[in-house]
Amino acid sequence: MNARGFSLAAAATVLFAASSGLSAKTTTYDCTAAGGAFSQMTHATGGGNPAISGNVQVKQLGTDSKVLPTATVRVSTKKDFVALQLTPERPDSKKVLVRVRNGTGSEEEFAELGTISLDQPISFRIDLLKNEVRVTAGDQSVTVEQMMRGNPTVALTCSTGSFQFADLSFG
After folding, report:
1. DSSP labels for the chain?
2. At the topology level of CATH, where does 5-170 sit?
3. How far apart are CA 85 and CA 83, in angstroms?
4. What is the rounded CA–CA span in Å between residue 6 and residue 137?
5. Which UniProt keywords apply (predicted)?
6. Residues 6+ apart with CB under 8 A from 75
């Protein structure tokens, strides 16, 4: 992606880091980015077979001629990634497309999980298993073959709009 602007939600990152020490605690990340800009919060997983779960909801869609409003939960290493992504079907749509992206730096695959209403929150969970990743969004689930080479990092990202990641839990 080619972003004209990028902002880091430092306060949310501090709150996130402080609250993620115990898996029983959850946190909320209100992610807002102006049109054409991105905002991101990251969390190192510490290796192993981590999982992330929570809910994500569109709060407001922005507009930009090049960058679509998007909310992404991405688990990645330097070489591999799996991401759950929400983006409107069209700029004026009242429906949000939910899909899974996975791959390496040179190859990428997509799996469509369906659509939800613009104002509907959706629960999600991403489980890293030995050589595959299971992604669940709402009542839909897909398992993709994806070995994570290295220690994964979780990134919650939004662009061109306002999204809420709530009840976030890492374990």
Report:
1. ---SEEEE-HHHHHHHHHHTSSTT--EEEEEEEEEEEEEEEEEE--SSS-EEEEEEEEEEE---SS---EEEEEEE-SSEEEEEEEEESSTT-SEEEEEEEEEESS-EEEEEEEEEETT--EEEEEEE-SSEEEEEETTEEEEEE----S--EEEEEEEEEEEEEEEEEE-
2. Jelly Rolls (2.60.120)
3. 6
4. 27
5. Signal
6. 45, 50, 52, 81, 82, 83, 126, 128, 133, 148, 152, 153, 154
Q: What does the pLDDT look like over 52-98, one tens digit per residue? A: 999 999 999 999 999 999 999 999 988 999 999 999 998 788 999 99
Q: What whole-number distance in Å separates Cα of residue 157 and Cα of residue 104?
A: 19
- Each domain of the chain, given as residue ranges in start order, spans 5-170
Instruction: Give the predicted TM-score (pTM) of the model.
Output: 0.84
Q: At residue 64, what is the residue type?
A: D
